[in-house]
Structures are given as C-alpha cells and as structure tokens.
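ARCHIVE CARD
Drawer: 12
Card no.: 0347
Subject: one protein chain, sequence and derived structure
Cross-reference: see card 0346
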Amino acid sequence: MFFATDTANNASRGFDHISVTPLTGALGAEIAGPDGAPLDVRDLDDDGFAEIRQASVDHLVVFFRDQSFDLDSFVEFGERWGSFGDDPFVAGLDSHPNVVKVCKEADEKHPLVFGGAWHSDWSFQEQPPAFTILYGHDVPDHGGDTLWSNQYLAADHVSPGLRATLAGLRAVHSPQKAYGAQATHNELVENMDILYGEAANQRRAQPILREHPDSGRTALFVNWGYTESIDGWWPGESQALLDHLHEVSTNPVYTCRFRWRPGSIAVWDNRCTLHNPISDYAGTRREMWRLTIEGEEPIPGR
C-alpha cells in the first residue's frame, strides 16, 4: 500500500497579524508574529486571535515558541478557544481545576508515559474535546517529542468502495482499555492522580467518518486508545477493519513531529487529528500543563 501527500496539502495562506511556517506536507505549523517576529500570544487582539483560529483549521495543530505563562495566564489563553471540557479520569490542580499537570519525574521507575498511544482525547464522550492545549513548563533538552496525524488524509486514502461502507458505520468507543478496573498500568504513572475503575464501563457509538464543523471536510474518527469495535459487527470482523484503519491513520507520511522547548505551546484539533507522546526521556523530568476545550457531538461525515 503506497502512502503519499504533497506540500500543497499543508500550504500556508497569508495573514496580517501572524506568520505561519508549515512543519510537514501533512499537517502542523509554527506561528510567530509578522515577518517571523517574536509573538506573545497574551498580547493578541481579537483580529490576531481570529487568524490563529483560521490557522488551526488550515493546519490542524499549531505551535507557539517562547511563551511565558503562569497558571492564570494559561487558563486565560485557553478561555479564548472555548468552554473547558470535562477530564473524567485525570484530576486537575486544586488551584486551577481545569489544568491537568502531566508530569514525569526523573526518578520514576518505569518509562511509561501518560497517554502513550495513538488517540484522540476522550473520543468516547458525547461531546469529545474540540481542542487540547499543551504547554511545555519543564521539558528535557532532548526527547519527549509528540506526534500528530492528519485524519482527513487518512479518510481520503481509503478506496471509494470502503469509504462508502464506512459512511454508514459507527464504531464503539470506550475508556475501558485505558482506565478500566484491569488497567493496572496506570499504577506505573507515579506522579499523576489517575482515576480508573468501574467508571470506565461506558461505551458510545460514534460515526467512523466525521465532518468537521468549520472546514466541512471529512476525517476518519477511530483510534487505538479508545475504539474497541465496529457497532453491529462480530469481533473478528471488527478487528480486521480496525487494524487496517489504524495502519492508515498513523502512517508516517500523514504525520508531523514536534520537538518541545520550555515555553512551547501546542494547540490541536481532536476532531481531525490523532496524537501520540513519545516515551524516550526516562531519567529526566518533564512537566506539561494541559487544557481541553469542549467540542460538539460528532457530525457524521460523507
């Protein structure tokens, strides 16, 4: 199976208040001020922020360098993207309950990282997050990159016949594998308050093809972390199709990779991307601050 895309897929349009540098031919872009000047996102007026929102529609995940947030200003930045979502299995900070501290200390015994598999955040919810915002508060000098994958391109890749079949199907999403009573791997994440157990016995059927409300494009909406079966199919049939869709959805040609530095921000759209944090920094400390922004009930795609 041959996978390919081209740079036109992730080309940048012109803006008045920001400059945009695409990362790969598939998705992702770094945003700075006009002509590449330093940009402090706290200083953006409404017109400038509207351009950032458009860039996020164009590039699916956008990145900002050299920001300087405290928790209050981080929350204020998040509020510009929408209402905060519900994080059902991770506890927020006491002082800022919508902020989840994603932390791995240098002395942890196991290299497992939080969220360490390809997924779209909380895809089992009735209204899964539209956006996730991640801020690099304390990051290693190397290691700890994050990958993203373009699910529009994944949907476009499948054959016309398979796409017509997928348009009439729903997949069952559940947190059971990640947070169920048997998900004892959570005990290996030593410095985060992860909630798991019977509350994970929930399931929701979501459209496999999902239409984005802003772009109008159709994305593949299944992921290894939370999608467990095809609604109405036998287990063997489900697994065969999902294995194929996972292969398509995470092919390297549809991805970008971001190297974190202190003060970096990533904002990604869960409706049309998957992401995967890389576990390659055991023995060093990494602390990220995370917000999720509530989305809408998934719209079936064409």
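Annotation on reverse: The first strand starts at residue 19 and ends at 22. The two ends are 23 Å apart (CA to CA).
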